[in-house]
Design a protein that fits this description.
The complex is a heterodimer. In chain A, 77% of the residues lie in helices and 1% in strands. Chain A contains 15 helices and two strands. The relative contact order of chain A is 0.12. In chain A, helix 4 packs antiparallel against helix 11, helix 10 runs antiparallel to helix 11 and helix 13 packs antiparallel against helix 14. By secondary structure, chain A is mainly α. The longest helix of chain A is centred in the N-terminal third of the chain and has 39 residues. By secondary structure, chain B is an alpha/beta fold. In chain B, strands 1, 2, 3, 4, 6, 9, 10, 11, 12, 13, 14, 15 and 18 form a 13-stranded mixed β-sheet that branches. A three-stranded antiparallel β-sheet of chain B has the order 5-8-7, with no helix packed on it. In chain B, strands 16-17 form a two-stranded antiparallel sheet. The chains are: A mainly alpha, B alpha/beta. Chain B: InterPro entries: SBP, TAT_signal. Chain B: Pfam families: SBP_bac_8.
Chain lengths: 303, 429
């Protein structure tokens, strides 16, 4: 439309049309304005404020505008920070690997083994049923299952498999990873299912006609084409795990640290600038990770 | 008078509070409570009170409205936010309901004004713990931020605390208690007598402490001293070396697997205990009551080293003057006049003026909660539920036995920031 208008503007360069032309030139900007305003006011501005506050000074009562790097040197110079980041990255890696494995197979089953679209949708909706309750409830419901006198332990003791309850089921790293995998697998299933559904079935037929085995089809056709979905799922899962604090707090019984939990501790002690510095460090790290993922897989090209 | 409402089991809490308030309001109107000269109903006054939530109870606001005609607007925050708000937004409140250790931080900034004890009708009824620091003439003054050390200033405009009681009181105490360890008597399998017992290898993986640095460090200090590892000059104000020693000890205990969990909120502590994940842990008295109300044995175990105690009070904002200041005094005098005290005592806390509260409690209630005597009948919670069956005796015994054995008060340390940093290392370790 803009091109057509430009053409007409070239033909007749009368005044009223020029006004229409300038309006037309602004149209895309006008169209982009609402989203730009919303993102600017509710995303960019807060992030900028966090970045600014991270250089401020503070005591228990107030924050003082300043330009100090002590918040960063305190954060980066402490072994607690490094250990906590390593711990969080470890959770992210384990949870990512497990959700990818489980998520891919669930999506693969839904996409290739269920014949009718209706059935696919029904099963997909069943996957989402647990998500009708809140995150916290799904997490907390693990506690009576895994506890010392919980379902698993009492059953195992009763049928005589173990002499006394297993302690590491709850309030341990195992519990944290289990809860996270449970909470976040769907974020992997959905995008992978979406890309698998877009794969042209004739490609698979062609591969089979060319003599590829089932394994080869999977490895050389399906997985490369599912990469964008995996990348999107990875971004979801990694950012969710990196920013998680309630799961780590509840499932480890407060015994394990995560970056967000460290921030929350600082905020509850009103050390906002220190928490802001931490938030900036985490933001940079997560953005680097997302950039890395996007470098490996071009989401837009392959969608 | 209020007992009649407690017997009405099966009504919702809200309607119960309403009828209770109305009943007492009627009694007040008929002359049962006297001595409140001004009725603010003709000239409506609102007092904005904010605080840490323990004593920010709707029942108190309702009753205050009924008795005095003063509307109380209450806001509850956690203690750190309360400290910040008290200093940074002094015009946003009229009455600050804060703990004494917060007052130590806040008062010197000049946002509050002291109260003239001559205008406090029940000043001489206030428990001496808050005046001289001694419950009985021969008790020992506890460590930490003991309320009497921040309870007075030299003059009306002074910002430094007085060493002796003066005419100018910074805060009128509202609510206080003595904390200790909670245990599952059915699961610990032996007598628990000292704070050191929480580190017994027999309870490996079955102990918990709370993950609120300023309180957790005090519990840790009680444990350290009980084990004979260290002798603090003042548990409430440790030096850097003392903090290091304490945290290093905690880290080692954590890595040896002594702790099952660290709890942050009231309900977490209740669940840990009720599920049997933990058999000995730091606990607050309402949490013990909550575990017991599930029919599970739980004891608030008195220990030979004594209790860790906390207390809060009401302070006046500096901007109050004229009719509002008068109303604030009237509110505080009413607070000390007995009804509120009885209400708080009945929840297992203690009130500032025990003598006035006694008139509002039945003999049996007073005997159980304050005198440490076996209950003659069932003891009811303010919401009408049975809290304790007839024959029960309060853990730790009487008021004098419990509050007379306070070893330290919740406090704020000079090395606060260092302590919090080391505490975070303990949690991350």
């Amino acid at each position: 439309m803009a091109a057509a208008l430009e053409q007409s503007a070239l033909v007749t360069s009368a005044k009223p049309t020029r006004r229409r032309l300038s309006l037309a030139r602004f149209a895309p900007y006008l169209q982009a304005t609402p989203l730009a305003l919303i993102l600017g006011a509710f995303l960019l501005l807060p992030i900028l404020m966090i970045a600014v506050v991270s250089f401020w000074d503070y005591d228990f009562a107030a924050m003082y505008p300043d330009f100090l790097t002590t918040n960063y040197s305190d954060t980066l110079g402490s072994w607690v920070t490094w250990k906590t980041y390593l711990n969080t990255l470890k959770y992210a890696a384990i949870v990512w690997a497990l959700t990818l494995l489980i998520g891919f197979w669930v999506a693969y089953f839904l996409a290739f083994h269920i014949r009718t679209t209706a059935m696919q949708m029904v099963l997909f909706l069943i996957c989402t049923v647990p998500f009708l309750t809140s995150n916290i409830i799904r997490m907390i419901s693990w506690i009576p299952v895994l506890g010392r006198n919980g379902l698993v332990n009492s059953t195992l003791v009763q049928i005589g498999l173990i002499p006394k309850p297993i302690e590491w089921l709850l309030y341990s790293e195992f519990a944290v990873v289990l809860a996270m995998v449970h909470l976040y697998t769907l974020f992997m299933v959905t995008p992978i299912f979406n890309t698998l559904m877009r794969i042209d079935k004739s490609l698979i037929e062609a591969a089979r006609d060319a003599g590829a085995s089932g394994w080869q089809v999977l490895w050389n056709v399906v997985i490369p084409l599912a990469k964008p979905g995996m990348a999107i799922g990875t971004i979801f899962v990694v950012t969710l795990v990196m920013a998680d604090f309630s799961t780590v707090q509840v499932m480890s019984g407060g015994q394990s640290a995560s970056v967000a939990l460290m921030m929350k501790n600082q905020m509850s002690l009103l050390q906002y600038p220190a928490a802001a510095a931490n938030a900036v460090v985490l933001l940079v790290l997560v953005l680097l990770m997302v950039a890395g993922i996007l470098r490996i897989v071009d989401i837009r090209k392959e969608l | 008078m209020t007992n009649t409402t407690d017997k009405k089991i099966g009504i919702s809490r809200r309607s119960l509070l309403k009828t209770g308030a109305a009943a007492v309001g009627l009694a007040a109107g008929s002359g049962a409570i006297t001595g409140f000269p001004t009725i603010w109903a003709q000239n409506p006054i609102t007092l904005r009170q904010f605080g840490t939530g323990v004593s920010n109870l709707n029942a108190i606001a309702d009753k205050c409205k009924a008795d005095l005609g003063i509307t109380l607007e209450m806001t509850a925050t956690d203690s750190d936010a309360a400290a910040q708000r008290a200093v940074t937004q002094p015009d946003s409140y009229d009455i600050a309901d804060i703990e004494y250790w917060i007052a130590k931080k806040v008062y010197p900034s000049g946002v509050m004004q002291p109260m003239d004890v001559k205008k406090l009708k029940y000043y001489d009824k206030i428990v001496p713990l808050f005046i001289t620091g001694k419950l009985t003439p021969d008790s020992v003054i506890a460590q930490g931020t003991a309320p009497h050390t921040v309870g007075f200033v030299e003059a009306q405009d002074a910002k430094t605390f007085a060493k002796e009681p003066t005419q100018w009181m910074t805060m009128v105490p509202t609510i206080y208690n003595a904390d200790t360890l909670g245990i599952r008597p059915d699961l610990v399998g032996r007598d628990i007598t000292t704070w050191a017992d929480i580190m017994d290898p027999a309870f490996k993986g079955k102990a918990a402490i709370l993950n609120i640095p300023s309180i957790g460090i005090m519990d840790a200090a009680m444990i350290m001293e009980a084990m004979g590892n260290i002798k603090y000059a003042d548990k409430g104000n440790m030096t850097k070396e003392e903090i290091d020693k304490t945290i290093d000890f905690l880290i080692k205990a954590k890595q040896d697997g002594q702790f099952r969990a660290f709890w942050k909120s009231f309900d977490e502590s209740v669940n840990l205990m009720a599920s049997g994940e933990v058999v000995i842990q730091s606990m607050w008295s309402p949490a013990v009551a909550a575990v017991r109300s599930k029919g599970i044995a739980c004891k608030y175990q008195p220990l030979k080293e004594g209790y860790r105690s906390w207390g809060g009070g009401l302070g006046l904002a500096a901007h109050l003057k004229g009719a509002e200041l008068d109303a604030a005094y009237e509110y505080i005098n009413w607070y000390l006049s007995g009804w509120v005290g009885a209400y708080l005592n009945r929840q297992g806390y203690y009130s500032a003026a025990m003598d006035t509260a006694k008139q509002f409690m039945s003999e049996d209630e007073w005997g159980y909660w304050v005198d440490g005597k076996p209950a003659k009948g069932d003891i009811m919670a303010p919401d009408g539920k049975v809290m304790e069956k007839a024959g029960a005796v309060r853990d730790g015994g009487s008021f004098v036995e419990r509050m007379g054995k306070v070893a330290c008060w919740n406090s704020v340390m000079d090395e606060d920031r260092y302590m919090v940093r080391r505490w975070n290392e303990f949690i991350a370790a």
